[in-house]
Amino acid sequence: MADIQQLEKIASQVRRDIVRQVHFATCGHPGGSLGCADFLTALYFEIMNHNPEFNMSGKNEDVFFLSNGHISPLWYSVLARSGYFEVSELATFRKLNSRLQGHPATHEGLPGVRVASGSLGQGLSVAIGVALAKKINGDDSLVFALTGDGELQEGQIWEAAMYAPHNKVDNLIVTVDWNGQQIDGANDDVLTLGDLPLKWKAFGWEVLQMNGNDMTEVVATLHEAKKKTGQGKPIVILMKTVMGFGVDFMMHTHKWHGVAPNAEQTETALAQLEETLGDF
Amino acid sequence: MLDKYVSTGKKATRNGFGAGLYEIGQQNDEVVALIADLLGSLKMQQFKEAFPERFFQIGIAEANMMGIAAGLATAGKIPYTGTFANFSTGRVYDQIRQSIAYSDKNVKICASHAGVTLGEDGATHQILEDIGMMKMLPGMTVINPCDYNQTKAATMAIAEHHGPVYLRFGRPSWPMFIPEDTKFEIGKALLLNEGTDVSIFATGHLVWIALEAARALTAEGVSCEVINIHTIKPLDNEAILDSVSKTKCVVTAEEHQRNGGLGDSIAQLLAQHQPAPMEYVAVNDSFGESGTPMELLDKYGLGTKDVINAVKNVLKRK
Is CATH 3.40.50.970 the right assignment for the domain spanning A4-271? Predict the structure, then answer.
Protein backbone atom coordinates (compact mmCIF):
# COMPACT_ATOMS: atom_id res chain seq x y z
CA MET A 1 0.00 0.00 0.00
CA ALA A 2 1.17 3.44 -0.87
CA ASP A 3 2.15 5.76 1.96
CA ILE A 4 0.02 8.70 0.86
CA GLN A 5 1.36 10.99 3.56
CA GLN A 6 4.92 10.32 2.49
CA LEU A 7 4.05 11.03 -1.15
CA GLU A 8 2.38 14.28 -0.12
CA LYS A 9 5.51 15.26 1.75
CA ILE A 10 7.63 14.64 -1.31
CA ALA A 11 5.17 16.60 -3.46
CA SER A 12 5.41 19.52 -1.07
CA GLN A 13 9.20 19.57 -1.43
CA VAL A 14 8.84 19.22 -5.21
CA ARG A 15 6.57 22.27 -5.21
CA ARG A 16 9.18 24.22 -3.23
CA ASP A 17 11.80 23.15 -5.76
CA ILE A 18 9.60 24.39 -8.60
CA VAL A 19 9.01 27.80 -7.07
CA ARG A 20 12.67 28.24 -6.15
CA GLN A 21 14.01 27.07 -9.53
CA VAL A 22 11.75 29.44 -11.41
CA HIS A 23 12.47 32.29 -9.03
CA PHE A 24 16.25 31.89 -9.30
CA ALA A 25 16.02 31.57 -13.09
CA THR A 26 13.71 34.64 -13.17
CA CYS A 27 11.67 32.79 -15.80
CA GLY A 28 10.00 29.44 -16.43
CA HIS A 29 6.57 27.87 -16.06
CA PRO A 30 5.40 27.45 -12.47
CA GLY A 31 1.62 27.11 -13.05
CA GLY A 32 1.42 23.76 -14.84
CA SER A 33 4.41 22.47 -12.91
CA LEU A 34 2.68 22.99 -9.57
CA GLY A 35 -0.57 21.52 -10.89
CA CYS A 36 1.07 18.26 -11.96
CA ALA A 37 3.35 17.85 -8.94
CA ASP A 38 1.15 15.24 -7.23
CA PHE A 39 0.87 13.17 -10.40
CA LEU A 40 4.56 13.10 -11.23
CA THR A 41 5.53 12.44 -7.61
CA ALA A 42 3.16 9.47 -7.49
CA LEU A 43 4.47 8.20 -10.81
CA TYR A 44 8.15 8.22 -9.86
CA PHE A 45 7.85 7.35 -6.17
CA GLU A 46 5.03 4.82 -6.26
CA ILE A 47 3.89 3.66 -9.70
CA MET A 48 6.79 3.21 -12.07
CA ASN A 49 9.41 0.51 -11.90
CA HIS A 50 12.38 2.59 -12.98
CA ASN A 51 16.11 2.80 -12.50
CA PRO A 52 17.87 6.07 -11.63
CA GLU A 53 21.03 4.49 -13.02
CA PHE A 54 19.84 5.94 -16.28
CA ASN A 55 19.78 3.84 -19.42
CA MET A 56 18.57 5.56 -22.58
CA SER A 57 16.84 2.50 -24.02
CA GLY A 58 14.71 1.99 -20.91
CA LYS A 59 14.69 -1.75 -21.55
CA ASN A 60 12.82 -3.75 -18.90
CA GLU A 61 11.80 -0.66 -16.96
CA ASP A 62 8.85 1.70 -17.08
CA VAL A 63 9.63 4.94 -18.89
CA PHE A 64 8.05 8.38 -18.86
CA PHE A 65 7.83 11.05 -21.56
CA LEU A 66 6.97 14.66 -20.79
CA SER A 67 5.33 16.02 -23.92
CA ASN A 68 4.46 19.40 -22.40
CA GLY A 69 8.12 20.13 -21.85
CA HIS A 70 7.58 23.60 -20.43
CA ILE A 71 6.79 22.11 -17.02
CA SER A 72 10.43 21.05 -16.85
CA PRO A 73 11.08 22.43 -13.32
CA LEU A 74 8.64 19.81 -12.02
CA TRP A 75 10.29 16.97 -13.89
CA TYR A 76 13.79 18.09 -12.92
CA SER A 77 12.81 18.19 -9.27
CA VAL A 78 11.22 14.73 -9.37
CA LEU A 79 14.21 13.28 -11.25
CA ALA A 80 16.67 14.79 -8.79
CA ARG A 81 14.65 13.72 -5.76
CA SER A 82 14.46 10.20 -7.30
CA GLY A 83 18.24 10.03 -7.54
CA TYR A 84 18.85 10.62 -11.24
CA PHE A 85 21.21 13.50 -10.44
CA GLU A 86 22.24 15.65 -7.50
CA VAL A 87 19.52 17.86 -6.04
CA SER A 88 22.02 20.74 -5.96
CA GLU A 89 21.98 20.79 -9.76
CA LEU A 90 18.46 22.23 -9.61
CA ALA A 91 20.14 25.56 -8.88
CA THR A 92 21.41 25.63 -12.47
CA PHE A 93 17.95 25.57 -14.06
CA ARG A 94 17.95 27.69 -17.24
CA LYS A 95 21.52 28.92 -16.64
CA LEU A 96 24.33 28.89 -19.19
CA ASN A 97 26.15 25.52 -19.42
CA SER A 98 23.44 23.75 -17.41
CA ARG A 99 22.04 20.32 -18.20
CA LEU A 100 18.69 21.66 -16.99
CA GLN A 101 17.63 23.44 -20.17
CA GLY A 102 14.54 25.63 -20.24
CA HIS A 103 12.81 22.75 -21.96
CA PRO A 104 13.99 19.17 -21.44
CA ALA A 105 16.75 17.95 -23.73
CA THR A 106 19.02 14.97 -24.18
CA HIS A 107 21.76 17.06 -25.74
CA GLU A 108 23.59 17.81 -22.47
CA GLY A 109 23.15 14.25 -21.24
CA LEU A 110 20.75 14.89 -18.36
CA PRO A 111 19.86 11.49 -16.86
CA GLY A 112 16.15 10.71 -17.06
CA VAL A 113 15.39 12.60 -20.25
CA ARG A 114 15.03 10.44 -23.37
CA VAL A 115 13.87 12.97 -25.96
CA ALA A 116 13.68 16.74 -26.21
CA SER A 117 10.28 18.32 -25.77
CA GLY A 118 8.95 21.83 -25.75
CA SER A 119 7.62 22.20 -29.24
CA LEU A 120 4.23 20.73 -28.35
CA GLY A 121 2.41 17.68 -29.61
CA GLN A 122 5.37 15.37 -30.18
CA GLY A 123 5.78 13.34 -27.01
CA LEU A 124 2.85 11.01 -27.49
CA SER A 125 4.25 9.77 -30.81
CA VAL A 126 7.66 9.15 -29.26
CA ALA A 127 6.04 7.27 -26.38
CA ILE A 128 4.22 5.07 -28.89
CA GLY A 129 7.52 4.31 -30.61
CA VAL A 130 9.07 3.10 -27.36
CA ALA A 131 5.93 1.10 -26.58
CA LEU A 132 6.17 -0.63 -29.97
CA ALA A 133 9.84 -1.42 -29.38
CA LYS A 134 8.97 -2.93 -26.01
CA LYS A 135 6.47 -5.21 -27.72
CA ILE A 136 9.04 -6.34 -30.30
CA ASN A 137 11.51 -7.01 -27.49
CA GLY A 138 9.03 -8.96 -25.38
CA ASP A 139 9.53 -6.39 -22.65
CA ASP A 140 6.34 -6.14 -20.58
CA SER A 141 7.16 -2.90 -18.80
CA LEU A 142 5.08 0.21 -19.47
CA VAL A 143 5.33 3.58 -21.15
CA PHE A 144 3.84 6.69 -19.54
CA ALA A 145 3.38 10.10 -21.11
CA LEU A 146 2.01 13.43 -19.97
CA THR A 147 0.54 16.08 -22.25
CA GLY A 148 -1.02 19.44 -21.57
CA ASP A 149 -4.62 20.16 -22.47
CA GLY A 150 -3.87 23.17 -24.66
CA GLU A 151 -1.35 20.87 -26.32
CA LEU A 152 -4.25 18.80 -27.61
CA GLN A 153 -4.82 21.57 -30.13
CA GLU A 154 -1.78 20.23 -32.01
CA GLY A 155 -2.72 17.95 -34.92
CA GLN A 156 0.04 15.43 -34.28
CA ILE A 157 -1.64 14.46 -31.00
CA TRP A 158 -4.64 13.19 -32.92
CA GLU A 159 -2.48 11.35 -35.45
CA ALA A 160 -0.99 9.51 -32.49
CA ALA A 161 -4.39 9.14 -30.83
CA MET A 162 -5.66 7.39 -33.96
CA TYR A 163 -2.60 5.17 -34.33
CA ALA A 164 -2.37 3.69 -30.85
CA PRO A 165 -5.82 2.02 -30.62
CA HIS A 166 -5.68 0.77 -34.22
CA ASN A 167 -2.42 -0.96 -33.43
CA LYS A 168 -3.42 -2.12 -29.94
CA VAL A 169 -0.62 -0.23 -28.19
CA ASP A 170 -1.89 -1.36 -24.80
CA ASN A 171 1.34 -0.88 -22.86
CA LEU A 172 0.86 2.88 -22.91
CA ILE A 173 -0.73 5.14 -20.28
CA VAL A 174 -1.15 8.75 -21.33
CA THR A 175 -2.21 11.43 -18.88
CA VAL A 176 -3.67 14.76 -19.96
CA ASP A 177 -3.20 17.69 -17.60
CA TRP A 178 -6.72 19.06 -17.88
CA ASN A 179 -6.34 22.35 -16.03
CA GLY A 180 -8.42 24.23 -18.58
CA GLN A 181 -5.81 26.93 -19.05
CA GLN A 182 -3.21 27.89 -21.61
CA ILE A 183 -0.97 30.93 -22.11
CA ASP A 184 -3.57 33.16 -23.69
CA GLY A 185 -6.41 32.21 -21.37
CA ALA A 186 -8.92 29.44 -20.77
CA ASN A 187 -9.02 26.59 -23.31
CA ASP A 188 -12.65 27.39 -23.84
CA ASP A 189 -11.79 30.94 -24.90
CA VAL A 190 -8.74 30.11 -27.02
CA LEU A 191 -9.91 26.95 -28.80
CA THR A 192 -12.33 24.75 -26.98
CA LEU A 193 -11.44 21.10 -26.44
CA GLY A 194 -15.08 20.08 -26.39
CA ASP A 195 -16.09 16.80 -24.83
CA LEU A 196 -12.65 15.38 -24.12
CA PRO A 197 -13.73 12.03 -22.61
CA LEU A 198 -15.99 11.40 -25.59
CA LYS A 199 -13.28 12.39 -28.06
CA TRP A 200 -10.71 9.97 -26.62
CA LYS A 201 -13.34 7.25 -26.33
CA ALA A 202 -14.34 7.77 -29.94
CA PHE A 203 -10.70 7.37 -30.94
CA GLY A 204 -10.71 3.97 -29.22
CA TRP A 205 -8.98 4.66 -25.91
CA GLU A 206 -9.78 3.35 -22.46
CA VAL A 207 -10.63 6.59 -20.68
CA LEU A 208 -10.14 7.24 -16.96
CA GLN A 209 -10.59 10.48 -15.07
CA MET A 210 -9.13 11.69 -11.82
CA ASN A 211 -8.55 14.67 -9.61
CA GLY A 212 -4.82 15.21 -10.10
CA ASN A 213 -4.49 17.18 -6.89
CA ASP A 214 -5.73 14.44 -4.57
CA MET A 215 -2.84 12.08 -3.91
CA THR A 216 -5.06 9.22 -2.80
CA GLU A 217 -7.08 9.44 -5.99
CA VAL A 218 -3.99 9.87 -8.18
CA VAL A 219 -2.37 6.73 -6.78
CA ALA A 220 -5.57 4.71 -7.00
CA THR A 221 -6.28 5.79 -10.58
CA LEU A 222 -2.74 5.08 -11.73
CA HIS A 223 -2.95 1.60 -10.22
CA GLU A 224 -6.28 1.09 -11.97
CA ALA A 225 -4.72 2.26 -15.25
CA LYS A 226 -1.90 -0.25 -14.85
CA LYS A 227 -4.44 -3.03 -14.37
CA LYS A 228 -6.07 -2.06 -17.63
CA THR A 229 -2.88 -2.44 -19.66
CA GLY A 230 -2.43 -5.49 -21.84
CA GLN A 231 -6.08 -5.60 -22.81
CA GLY A 232 -5.82 -4.35 -26.38
CA LYS A 233 -6.38 -0.67 -25.74
CA PRO A 234 -4.17 2.28 -24.87
CA ILE A 235 -5.21 4.12 -21.72
CA VAL A 236 -5.72 7.84 -21.24
CA ILE A 237 -6.25 9.50 -17.88
CA LEU A 238 -7.96 12.86 -18.09
CA MET A 239 -6.53 14.54 -15.02
CA LYS A 240 -8.30 17.56 -13.60
CA THR A 241 -5.78 19.80 -11.96
CA VAL A 242 -5.65 23.36 -10.74
CA MET A 243 -2.86 25.33 -12.35
CA GLY A 244 -0.62 26.66 -9.61
CA PHE A 245 -1.97 24.20 -7.03
CA GLY A 246 -0.41 24.68 -3.59
CA VAL A 247 0.30 28.39 -3.92
CA ASP A 248 -2.91 30.34 -3.36
CA PHE A 249 -2.16 33.37 -5.49
CA MET A 250 -1.11 31.23 -8.46
CA MET A 251 -4.29 29.12 -8.48
CA HIS A 252 -7.32 29.41 -10.74
CA THR A 253 -5.65 31.67 -13.29
CA HIS A 254 -3.59 31.27 -16.46
CA LYS A 255 -1.47 34.26 -15.43
CA TRP A 256 1.18 32.11 -13.75
CA HIS A 257 1.58 29.81 -16.76
CA GLY A 258 4.94 31.28 -17.66
CA VAL A 259 5.86 33.95 -15.13
CA ALA A 260 8.46 33.79 -12.35
CA PRO A 261 7.61 35.00 -8.84
CA ASN A 262 9.71 37.85 -7.45
CA ALA A 263 11.45 37.61 -4.05
CA GLU A 264 8.40 38.66 -2.07
CA GLN A 265 6.05 36.39 -3.98
CA THR A 266 8.50 33.53 -3.61
CA GLU A 267 8.58 34.04 0.15
CA THR A 268 4.78 34.05 0.28
CA ALA A 269 4.64 30.90 -1.84
CA LEU A 270 7.25 29.00 0.18
CA ALA A 271 5.42 29.85 3.40
CA GLN A 272 2.56 27.75 2.04
CA LEU A 273 4.77 24.74 1.15
CA GLU A 274 6.39 22.69 3.88
CA GLU A 275 10.09 21.97 3.48
CA THR A 276 10.17 18.21 3.98
CA LEU A 277 13.37 16.95 2.34
CA GLY A 278 15.64 19.98 2.51
CA ASP A 279 15.84 22.69 -0.14
CA PHE A 280 18.49 22.51 -2.85
CA MET B 1 37.55 6.08 -66.72
CA LEU B 2 34.49 7.40 -68.51
CA ASP B 3 34.31 3.97 -70.15
CA LYS B 4 33.89 2.34 -66.74
CA TYR B 5 30.72 4.21 -65.85
CA VAL B 6 28.37 3.28 -68.68
CA SER B 7 24.71 2.43 -68.39
CA THR B 8 24.01 -1.25 -67.83
CA GLY B 9 20.25 -0.81 -67.86
CA LYS B 10 17.69 1.28 -66.08
CA LYS B 11 16.12 1.01 -62.65
CA ALA B 12 14.75 3.59 -60.26
CA THR B 13 16.83 4.61 -57.28
CA ARG B 14 13.79 3.92 -55.08
CA ASN B 15 14.03 0.28 -56.16
CA GLY B 16 17.60 0.32 -54.88
CA PHE B 17 16.28 1.55 -51.56
CA GLY B 18 13.71 -1.25 -51.38
CA ALA B 19 16.34 -3.88 -52.20
CA GLY B 20 18.83 -2.43 -49.72
CA LEU B 21 16.25 -2.22 -46.95
CA TYR B 22 15.32 -5.87 -47.41
CA GLU B 23 18.94 -6.96 -47.38
CA ILE B 24 19.92 -4.94 -44.31
CA GLY B 25 16.75 -6.21 -42.65
CA GLN B 26 18.07 -9.74 -43.13
CA GLN B 27 21.44 -8.84 -41.68
CA ASN B 28 20.39 -6.66 -38.76
CA ASP B 29 17.48 -7.57 -36.47
CA GLU B 30 17.34 -4.05 -35.04
CA VAL B 31 16.34 -2.55 -38.38
CA VAL B 32 12.65 -1.60 -38.45
CA ALA B 33 10.71 0.23 -41.15
CA LEU B 34 7.82 2.68 -41.11
CA ILE B 35 5.67 3.89 -43.99
CA ALA B 36 3.09 6.65 -44.27
CA ASP B 37 0.75 4.97 -46.76
CA LEU B 38 3.22 4.79 -49.68
CA LEU B 39 4.36 1.19 -49.41
CA GLY B 40 4.39 0.54 -53.15
CA SER B 41 5.97 3.85 -54.08
CA LEU B 42 8.83 3.31 -51.65
CA LYS B 43 9.28 -0.34 -52.73
CA MET B 44 9.06 -1.61 -49.17
CA GLN B 45 6.79 -4.63 -49.82
CA GLN B 46 9.60 -7.15 -49.65
CA PHE B 47 10.69 -5.92 -46.22
CA LYS B 48 7.11 -5.87 -44.99
CA GLU B 49 6.45 -9.45 -46.11
CA ALA B 50 9.73 -10.78 -44.74
CA PHE B 51 9.63 -8.95 -41.39
CA PRO B 52 6.01 -8.09 -40.56
CA GLU B 53 6.79 -7.71 -36.85
CA ARG B 54 9.37 -5.05 -37.68
CA PHE B 55 7.20 -3.12 -40.13
CA PHE B 56 4.82 -0.30 -39.16
CA GLN B 57 2.10 1.11 -41.38
CA ILE B 58 1.53 4.56 -39.90
CA GLY B 59 -1.12 5.89 -42.25
CA ILE B 60 -1.10 9.38 -43.73
CA ALA B 61 0.38 10.92 -40.60
CA GLU B 62 3.99 11.85 -41.25
CA ALA B 63 4.47 13.87 -38.05
CA ASN B 64 3.41 10.86 -36.00
CA MET B 65 5.72 8.66 -38.08
CA MET B 66 8.75 10.80 -37.24
CA GLY B 67 7.85 10.75 -33.55
CA ILE B 68 7.31 6.99 -33.48
CA ALA B 69 10.62 6.54 -35.27
CA ALA B 70 12.31 8.67 -32.60
CA GLY B 71 10.76 6.43 -29.94
CA LEU B 72 11.84 3.23 -31.66
CA ALA B 73 15.36 4.63 -31.91
CA THR B 74 15.32 5.58 -28.23
CA ALA B 75 14.66 1.94 -27.42
CA GLY B 76 17.61 0.84 -29.57
CA LYS B 77 15.95 0.08 -32.90
CA ILE B 78 17.24 1.43 -36.21
CA PRO B 79 14.12 2.88 -37.82
CA TYR B 80 13.87 3.66 -41.53
CA THR B 81 10.98 6.00 -42.32
CA GLY B 82 9.51 6.03 -45.79
CA THR B 83 7.51 8.66 -47.64
CA PHE B 84 8.00 11.19 -50.43
CA ALA B 85 10.83 13.70 -49.95
CA ASN B 86 8.36 16.56 -49.58
CA PHE B 87 6.53 14.84 -46.73
CA SER B 88 9.83 13.61 -45.25
CA THR B 89 11.18 17.11 -44.71
CA GLY B 90 9.09 20.26 -45.07
CA ARG B 91 5.95 18.72 -43.65
CA VAL B 92 7.73 17.38 -40.58
CA TYR B 93 10.64 19.74 -40.12
CA ASP B 94 9.91 20.53 -36.51
CA GLN B 95 9.41 16.88 -35.59
CA ILE B 96 12.76 16.04 -37.17
CA ARG B 97 14.42 19.03 -35.56
CA GLN B 98 13.26 18.39 -31.99
CA SER B 99 12.51 14.69 -31.65
CA ILE B 100 15.24 13.38 -33.98
CA ALA B 101 18.13 15.77 -34.68
CA TYR B 102 18.32 17.70 -31.40
CA SER B 103 17.60 14.47 -29.51
CA ASP B 104 20.34 12.62 -31.47
CA LYS B 105 18.08 9.76 -32.52
CA ASN B 106 19.37 7.09 -34.86
CA VAL B 107 16.58 7.54 -37.40
CA LYS B 108 17.05 7.04 -41.13
CA ILE B 109 14.73 9.39 -43.00
CA CYS B 110 14.32 7.79 -46.40
CA ALA B 111 12.81 10.10 -48.98
CA SER B 112 11.68 9.14 -52.44
CA HIS B 113 10.33 11.20 -55.36
CA ALA B 114 12.72 14.08 -54.72
CA GLY B 115 13.13 16.81 -57.31
CA VAL B 116 11.50 17.56 -60.65
CA THR B 117 12.02 14.00 -61.93
CA LEU B 118 8.98 13.06 -59.88
CA GLY B 119 7.30 14.29 -63.05
CA GLU B 120 3.63 14.56 -63.76
CA ASP B 121 2.38 15.01 -60.19
CA GLY B 122 3.75 18.53 -60.37
CA ALA B 123 5.23 21.12 -58.07
CA THR B 124 3.25 20.25 -54.92
CA HIS B 125 5.25 17.03 -54.75
CA GLN B 126 8.52 18.09 -56.41
CA ILE B 127 10.52 19.25 -53.45
CA LEU B 128 13.67 21.17 -54.39
CA GLU B 129 14.51 22.58 -50.97
CA ASP B 130 14.99 19.41 -48.94
CA ILE B 131 18.77 19.16 -49.05
CA GLY B 132 19.04 22.70 -47.75
CA MET B 133 16.58 22.12 -44.93
CA MET B 134 18.19 18.90 -43.83
CA LYS B 135 21.82 19.95 -44.08
CA MET B 136 21.14 22.91 -41.80
CA LEU B 137 20.21 20.60 -38.94
CA PRO B 138 23.19 20.00 -36.62
CA GLY B 139 24.30 16.38 -36.66
CA MET B 140 22.24 15.39 -39.70
CA THR B 141 23.98 13.35 -42.40
CA VAL B 142 22.62 14.06 -45.90
CA ILE B 143 23.02 11.52 -48.68
CA ASN B 144 21.76 11.70 -52.28
CA PRO B 145 22.87 8.59 -54.18
CA CYS B 146 22.98 8.58 -57.96
CA ASP B 147 21.70 5.22 -59.21
CA TYR B 148 20.12 1.93 -58.19
CA ASN B 149 23.31 0.26 -57.00
CA GLN B 150 24.54 3.25 -55.05
CA THR B 151 21.16 3.75 -53.41
CA LYS B 152 21.08 0.11 -52.38
CA ALA B 153 24.60 0.33 -50.97
CA ALA B 154 23.83 3.60 -49.17
CA THR B 155 20.64 2.18 -47.67
CA MET B 156 22.68 -0.61 -46.13
CA ALA B 157 25.63 1.56 -45.08
CA ILE B 158 23.55 4.00 -43.06
CA ALA B 159 22.51 1.24 -40.66
CA GLU B 160 26.13 1.05 -39.51
CA HIS B 161 26.30 4.80 -38.90
CA HIS B 162 24.92 5.97 -35.56
CA GLY B 163 22.95 9.19 -35.91
CA PRO B 164 20.19 10.75 -37.96
CA VAL B 165 20.48 10.42 -41.72
CA TYR B 166 18.52 11.95 -44.58
CA LEU B 167 18.63 9.58 -47.57
CA ARG B 168 17.23 11.16 -50.74
CA PHE B 169 16.31 9.27 -53.89
CA GLY B 170 13.86 9.42 -56.74
CA ARG B 171 11.01 8.06 -58.75
CA PRO B 172 12.07 7.64 -62.39
CA SER B 173 13.71 4.72 -64.05
CA TRP B 174 17.32 5.89 -64.36
CA PRO B 175 20.56 4.57 -65.87
CA MET B 176 22.56 2.20 -63.66
CA PHE B 177 26.27 2.88 -64.00
CA ILE B 178 27.92 2.45 -60.59
CA PRO B 179 29.28 -1.13 -60.46
CA GLU B 180 27.51 -3.25 -57.90
CA ASP B 181 30.71 -3.98 -55.99
CA THR B 182 31.57 -0.31 -55.46
CA LYS B 183 32.03 0.31 -51.77
CA PHE B 184 29.82 3.03 -50.32
CA GLU B 185 31.54 5.16 -47.73
CA ILE B 186 29.52 7.92 -46.07
CA GLY B 187 31.30 11.22 -46.58
CA LYS B 188 33.76 9.92 -49.17
CA ALA B 189 33.39 11.39 -52.65
CA LEU B 190 33.61 8.99 -55.57
CA LEU B 191 35.93 9.95 -58.40
CA LEU B 192 34.28 8.94 -61.67
CA ASN B 193 36.69 10.54 -64.13
CA GLU B 194 40.02 12.24 -63.78
CA GLY B 195 40.47 15.48 -65.68
CA THR B 196 42.47 18.66 -65.63
CA ASP B 197 40.36 21.49 -67.08
CA VAL B 198 37.29 21.60 -64.82
CA SER B 199 35.88 19.86 -61.75
CA ILE B 200 32.27 18.78 -62.05
CA PHE B 201 30.75 17.91 -58.68
CA ALA B 202 27.38 16.22 -59.05
CA THR B 203 24.86 14.50 -56.83
CA GLY B 204 21.80 12.30 -57.33
CA HIS B 205 20.30 11.90 -60.78
CA LEU B 206 22.52 14.70 -62.08
CA VAL B 207 25.61 12.50 -61.78
CA TRP B 208 24.58 10.62 -64.90
CA ILE B 209 23.84 13.92 -66.66
CA ALA B 210 27.30 15.14 -65.66
CA LEU B 211 28.91 12.00 -67.06
CA GLU B 212 27.04 12.43 -70.35
CA ALA B 213 28.20 16.04 -70.51
CA ALA B 214 31.78 14.99 -69.73
CA ARG B 215 31.71 12.47 -72.58
CA ALA B 216 30.55 15.15 -75.02
CA LEU B 217 33.10 17.65 -73.72
CA THR B 218 35.93 15.10 -73.92
CA ALA B 219 35.13 14.69 -77.60
CA GLU B 220 35.60 18.45 -77.89
CA GLY B 221 38.95 18.28 -76.13
CA VAL B 222 37.86 19.45 -72.66
CA SER B 223 39.28 17.34 -69.85
CA CYS B 224 36.58 17.01 -67.16
CA GLU B 225 37.10 15.69 -63.66
CA VAL B 226 33.78 14.22 -62.58
CA ILE B 227 33.24 13.59 -58.91
CA ASN B 228 30.15 12.04 -57.39
CA ILE B 229 29.32 13.82 -54.14
CA HIS B 230 26.79 11.33 -52.80
CA THR B 231 27.21 12.67 -49.25
CA ILE B 232 26.39 16.36 -49.10
CA LYS B 233 26.93 16.44 -45.36
CA PRO B 234 29.54 15.78 -44.14
CA LEU B 235 31.15 17.09 -47.31
CA ASP B 236 34.38 15.49 -48.51
CA ASN B 237 36.36 18.71 -48.25
CA GLU B 238 39.66 17.07 -49.05
CA ALA B 239 38.51 15.50 -52.32
CA ILE B 240 36.92 18.76 -53.44
CA LEU B 241 39.89 20.97 -52.59
CA ASP B 242 42.35 18.49 -54.15
CA SER B 243 40.40 18.50 -57.38
CA VAL B 244 39.94 22.27 -57.56
CA SER B 245 43.62 22.87 -56.77
CA LYS B 246 44.29 21.05 -60.03
CA THR B 247 41.48 22.27 -62.31
CA LYS B 248 41.00 25.80 -60.90
CA CYS B 249 37.32 25.95 -61.82
CA VAL B 250 34.09 24.26 -60.78
CA VAL B 251 30.64 23.24 -61.98
CA THR B 252 28.14 21.80 -59.52
CA ALA B 253 25.09 19.83 -60.63
CA GLU B 254 22.07 18.86 -58.57
CA GLU B 255 18.32 18.41 -58.79
CA HIS B 256 17.64 21.06 -56.13
CA GLN B 257 17.35 24.78 -55.65
CA ARG B 258 20.58 26.72 -56.03
CA ASN B 259 19.86 28.13 -52.61
CA GLY B 260 20.96 25.71 -49.95
CA GLY B 261 22.04 22.79 -52.07
CA LEU B 262 25.30 21.01 -52.88
CA GLY B 263 26.54 24.00 -54.87
CA ASP B 264 26.20 26.27 -51.88
CA SER B 265 28.07 23.85 -49.66
CA ILE B 266 30.93 23.70 -52.15
CA ALA B 267 30.91 27.48 -52.66
CA GLN B 268 31.21 27.96 -48.93
CA LEU B 269 34.17 25.59 -48.78
CA LEU B 270 35.92 27.20 -51.74
CA ALA B 271 35.30 30.75 -50.54
CA GLN B 272 37.09 29.90 -47.32
CA HIS B 273 39.95 27.82 -48.66
CA GLN B 274 40.38 28.10 -52.39
CA PRO B 275 38.29 30.67 -54.27
CA ALA B 276 37.66 29.58 -57.86
CA PRO B 277 35.23 30.43 -60.68
CA MET B 278 32.11 28.35 -60.27
CA GLU B 279 28.84 27.74 -62.12
CA TYR B 280 25.71 26.15 -60.71
CA VAL B 281 23.51 23.66 -62.52
CA ALA B 282 20.45 23.78 -60.26
CA VAL B 283 16.93 25.13 -60.19
CA ASN B 284 17.00 28.91 -60.01
CA ASP B 285 14.52 30.02 -57.35
CA SER B 286 11.53 28.39 -58.97
CA PHE B 287 8.91 25.73 -58.31
CA GLY B 288 8.54 22.91 -60.83
CA GLU B 289 5.46 21.82 -62.80
CA SER B 290 3.90 18.76 -64.44
CA GLY B 291 5.74 17.04 -67.28
CA THR B 292 7.92 14.03 -67.97
CA PRO B 293 11.20 13.81 -66.04
CA MET B 294 13.34 14.49 -69.09
CA GLU B 295 11.15 17.41 -70.21
CA LEU B 296 11.41 18.93 -66.77
CA LEU B 297 15.16 18.47 -66.47
CA ASP B 298 15.46 20.25 -69.79
CA LYS B 299 13.07 23.09 -68.94
CA TYR B 300 14.56 23.77 -65.53
CA GLY B 301 18.14 23.89 -66.70
CA LEU B 302 19.26 20.49 -65.42
CA GLY B 303 19.99 18.71 -68.71
CA THR B 304 23.19 17.57 -70.37
CA LYS B 305 23.37 20.72 -72.46
CA ASP B 306 23.11 22.82 -69.32
CA VAL B 307 26.12 21.09 -67.78
CA ILE B 308 28.04 21.52 -71.04
CA ASN B 309 27.18 25.23 -71.16
CA ALA B 310 28.12 25.67 -67.51
CA VAL B 311 31.51 24.10 -68.18
CA LYS B 312 32.11 26.31 -71.19
CA ASN B 313 31.11 29.40 -69.21
CA VAL B 314 33.31 28.59 -66.25
CA LEU B 315 36.30 27.83 -68.47
CA LYS B 316 36.04 31.37 -69.86
CA ARG B 317 36.25 32.72 -66.29
CA LYS B 318 39.43 30.86 -65.34
Answer: yes
